[in-house]
Amino acid sequence: MLVEVALKLYRDDCTGISILEPNDDLGVFGWYAIVGAFGPNLDGTMAGNLSPCGTVLNPGRPCSSTVPNGTRDGKPEMYENRLVSFHADGRPVGTVW
Q1: 66 phi and psi, to 5 degrees?
Q2: What is the pTM of this model?
Q3: CA separation for the pair 94, 8 (Å, rounded)
Q4: Are 74 and 67 in contact (CB under 8 A)?
Q5: Strand, coil or helix: what is 31?
Q6: Could you tell me the CA-to-CA distances from 73 to 55, 66, 82 in Å, in that order?
Q7: Quick check: 21 and 30 in contact, CB under 8 A?
Q8: Could you read off the pLDDT of 57-97 as tens digits, one per residue?
Q9: d(CA 53, CA 70)
C-alpha cells in the first residue's frame, strides 16, 4: 500500500491519505488509508478548515512545515509535516501526508 511505502521511505511516525468529501462550504477530509501513530484514526474525519490538508489544497502545491508538538523531558518537541495534494479534472480530491 502507498502509505506503508511512504512510512518506510521517509521514516515517519505516520502516513496517510485524506480524501476531500463535500460537506456544506468547508468540506471534510476522510482518513481511509493511515499507518503508524495515527492508525487508530482510520476511517475518521476532520473538518477541512481545521486540517493542514485543507491548507495545501488551496495553493495546489506540496507543503512542508515544522510544527511545535509540546515538550518532552522539558525540551521542545517538533514534528515535520509533509503534504502533497492531488486533483482530478482540475478539482481537488485529497492529500497524501
Answers
A1: -115, 130
A2: 0.74
A3: 21
A4: no
A5: strand
A6: 31, 19, 26
A7: yes
A8: 766 677 777 766 666 677 666 667 788 888 888 888 898 88
A9: 21
